[in-house]
Amino acid sequence: MKNPRDENELIRRIERRFPALKSKVLRLRLGDDAALWPPRPGYETILTCDWFLEDSHFIRGEHPADAVGWKCLARAVSDVAAMGGEPRCFLLSLALPVELTGKWLDGFLRGLRRAAQALRCELAGGDTTRQERVSINIAVIGEVKRGRAVLRSGARPGDLVFVSGIPGEAALGLELLKEAGSTQRRARGALQKHLYPEPRIPLGQLLANEGLASAMIDVSDGLSSDLARLCEASGVGAVIAPGALPRLKGISEAKAAQLALNGGDDYELLFTVKPQERRHLKKSLRTFNKIPVSFIGEITKGTKLRMVNAEGTTEELLQSGWDPFRNR
Amino acid sequence: MKNPRDENELIRRIERRFPALKSKVLRLRLGDDAALWPPRPGYETILTCDWFLEDSHFIRGEHPADAVGWKCLARAVSDVAAMGGEPRCFLLSLALPVELTGKWLDGFLRGLRRAAQALRCELAGGDTTRQERVSINIAVIGEVKRGRAVLRSGARPGDLVFVSGIPGEAALGLELLKEAGSTQRRARGALQKHLYPEPRIPLGQLLANEGLASAMIDVSDGLSSDLARLCEASGVGAVIAPGALPRLKGISEAKAAQLALNGGDDYELLFTVKPQERRHLKKSLRTFNKIPVSFIGEITKGTKLRMVNAEGTTEELLQSGWDPFRNR
Prior knowledge:
- Two copies of one chain form a homodimer.
- By secondary structure, chain A is of the alpha+beta class.
- Chain A has two domains: 7-145, CATH 3.30.1330.10; 152-316, Alpha-Beta Complex (Phosphoribosyl-aminoimidazole Synthetase, Chain A, domain 2).
- Helix content of chain A is 32%, strand content 25%.
- The first copy, chain A, contains nine helices and twelve strands.
- Chain A has helices at residues 7-17, 65-81, 103-118, 169-178, 185-195, 201-209, 223-234, 253-262, 278-286, and strands at residues 35-37, 43-53, 86-96, 122-130, 135-145, 160-164, 213-219, 237-240, 268-273, 293-300, 305-308, 314-316.
- In chain A, a hairpin with a 5-residue loop joins strand 11 and strand 12.
- In chain A, helix 2 (65-81) runs parallel beside helix 3 and helix 4 (169-178) packs across helix 5 (185-195).
- The radius of gyration of chain A is 20 Å and the shape is globular.
- At the A-B interface, helix 1, strand 1, strand 2, strand 3 and strand 4 of A face helix 1, strand 1, strand 2, strand 3 and strand 4 of B.
- Strand 1 of chain A pairs antiparallel with strand 2 of chain B, so a sheet runs across the interface.
C-alpha cells in the first residue's frame, strides 16, 4: 500500500483497520480530541503503559512487523493480567519514519488488530508522528471488580510461590531468532513465545476473583528480577528451587537454568498463595488445564532472596534480569 | 543529583518527587504493575495521549528541562479541556539517555510536578527506559459529566465560531526563542506562552456544563488546520475573518496574520455556538474574564473553508498548520 499523503490520511487508514468491536466498549473512539469510555459500576479502573522501542525491544530487520504489532499490545495487557483484571481498551502512540507508513505499517496494524481481537481490547485513540526510528507506546485501560485487584505487596512469610508457563522460553526463542536455521521443530514453540506472547488474562482473573493469590506480578524482565520486586513491595524474602521449574529443552542444563531465572519477555504470572489455600488452588486449576503452573518455593522472613541449588545447598539468588539502566 | 544506579532507583526518585495529592484520586499509584483508579458515578472517562519528542517537539539545548516537563503534560491535558472535561491523573512514559538521569531529570520532574499541581492531574504510573534521545509520552485520564462532553462533530451551518486567547502567540514565542535577545519585555508573554502553555480547563468546563458549545477542539497544530478538522468531523464549511483575531504585537502585519492562522502550540479552544446562545455565552463569559474570547466567523453549508481578507473579498483558507507527515 502507498504511503499516506498527510497525518489525516494516516489516521483514517488506522481507523479502517480497526472497526468498532461488537462489545461497544467505547462511546467515542478515534477521530476526536479524546476517547470517551463509560466505566462499569462496581469495578475499578486499571491504568498501565509500556514502551516498545526499535533497537531496545525489537530489531526492525529481525522481527516481523506483525509480531511488533502483536507484542506491543500483549506486553502492556500483561500488566492488567497481573492485577487480576481484564483489558478494555488501549491508546496507540506511534512514531515512525515516513518510509515505513506503507507496507511495514500494514503488517504492524495486522498484528496489532489480531492481538486486539484475541485480548478483547479495543483501540480507543492515540497519537501519530514522524521519527527516524520506530517508537511505540501503548496505554491500556482495564477493569477489575472493586477490592479484588491482586497487588505486589500482599505476600507474607510462609506463602507458597508459583509461576505459570515455562520461564525462559521467550529468551530461548530470541536466541533461536538470532541463529540461522531457527525453523527446526524444537524451536517453533519458543520462537512463537518470543514473537507472539500471550498474557495470562483468564488465569489472573481466576486467581483474583477466587481470592487465591496474596500477591502477583508478571514476569517481564526475568524471574529473578520480578521475584525481587514482589518481595521488596511485600517486605519479605523468598527461597526458590530452580529445579522445580519446567526444563527448557534442546540446550545445555547450565544455559537452561540461566534463561529460566533471568530471561525476559515471558509475560507469565508469578504469584503467592497462603498454604491453607493450596488445595483450593489445585482444585481451581484442574478446571483450567490450559497452561502449566509450577510450585517453585516459599516466602520467608527478612529480605533475602535465595535458591536451593542442585547439591541441595542454598545460595543467594542474584537479580540478573533485564534493567535498561544497569545492563549492557 | 547523581545518576541512579538502576531502574528501581530511578523510579523511586520519580516517586519521591510526586507525593500523593490530598485529593486521593488514586487507590494505588506508582510501584505496582498498574495503577488503580475509582471512577466517579455519573461521569464518563476521557482517554487521550500525546507524544513529546526531542528534536520534533523540543530542542534539548534551547528548551529548559522544566519547560519540557510542564509542556508535555499541559499539551496532553489540553485534549481533555477540549472535551469540556477535567483531568484526573496521568501516566508518564519516559525514555532518556543515562547521562540525563541526573540534573536534567531533576529539572524535568520539577516542571512536570508544577504542571501536575496546577492542573490537578496526579501521576498514576508509567514506564521508564533508556534511549539516545529523549522521548516522552503522556496518557491523561479525565472525567466529564455523562452526556456533557463537547465533540468535534456538533457544528451546524449558522453556528458562530469563537476562539480563546491570542492565536499565534506561542509560535511568536518560538521565533523569539530562536533569536538572541529574547528577553525584551515585549517578548516575555509570548515566550511564556510557548514554554508554559495553560490548557483552558475552566473555560472548557463552562462551555460543556452550560451546554453552550455545539462543537469544540483545541488549537494545537494551528487555527487553519484545527478549524478544518472540526469542520470535517461536523460535515460543514466555515468562513472566518482573520481581522477579528487579536493582533500579535511587535511584528509585521503579514507575519502576524500568518502566525495567527498557522502557528501551532497555543492550546486555546476553538468552538462553535448556536446563534440563539450568543447572549447566554456573553453573560457567562462576563463572570469569567480571565482570558479573551473572540468571535471570528460562522459555520456554513458545504465543506469549503474561506476567509474574508482585508479588502473585504473572500478567498480559500489553506490548511497550513503543522503536519508531521506533510511539512518540512
